[in-house]
Amino acid sequence: MKRWYLPALVLLAAVAVLAGAGAGHLRATAAEPGSDADPLVAKSYVDKLVALKVLELKAGQTLRAEAGAELVLRAGRAVAVTSPRGGLADLTAGRDIQAGEAVPANHLILVPRTDGRGVKALTPAVLLVRGGATVE
Q1: Considering the entire predicted model, what is its pTM?
Q2: In what order do the strands lie in the sheet containing 70-75?
Q3: Are 127 and 55 in contact (CB under 8 A)?
């Protein structure tokens, strides 16, 4: 009775190897995830999301940012422009910046909502901006 076990195991192993090789062939011929043939997201969306822009504001200009935008004041002086729903999140200091309060230089500022929040330059200012923003 035990004699049929060995050929059955060999046959089962051969089938498993062939099935694995066939599956590998199917994976190799499918489009690579993220390639031009199978994009995960649009390139323009990624560019807007991760692009770091350097913006120069003149004294009196206001930068209004979209939800999720990140700002870093690199030079000059600026104050926070907020909304009735709240201020700007200073991620470096771990606090909320309120309307008219000075924006600290070299701090990472997060804009939580698209409701008019941003910064107003008191002097010529240079900001690093990631995300959507408009200058007025």
Answers
A1: 0.66
A2: 52-57, 125-130, 70-75, 109-110, 88-90, 95-97
A3: yes
Q: Which amino acid is at 1?
A: M
List the domain boundaries for the chain. 52-135
Query: Which regions of 6-124 does DSSP assign to beta strands (E)?
Result: 52-57, 62-65, 70-75, 78-81, 88-90, 95-97, 109-110, 118-121
DSSP helix/strand/coil, 30? coil
DSSP H helices in the chain = 5-29, 43-50
SS3 of 100, please?
A: coil
pLDDT digits (tens, 9 = 90+) for 75-90: 999 999 999 999 999 9
Kindly report, residue by residue over 88-117, the tens digit of the pLDDT. 999 999 999 999 999 999 999 999 999 999
HSE-up (13 A, CA, CB side) for residue 41: 8
- Domain 52-135 class in CATH: mainly beta
C-alpha of 32 from chain center: 22
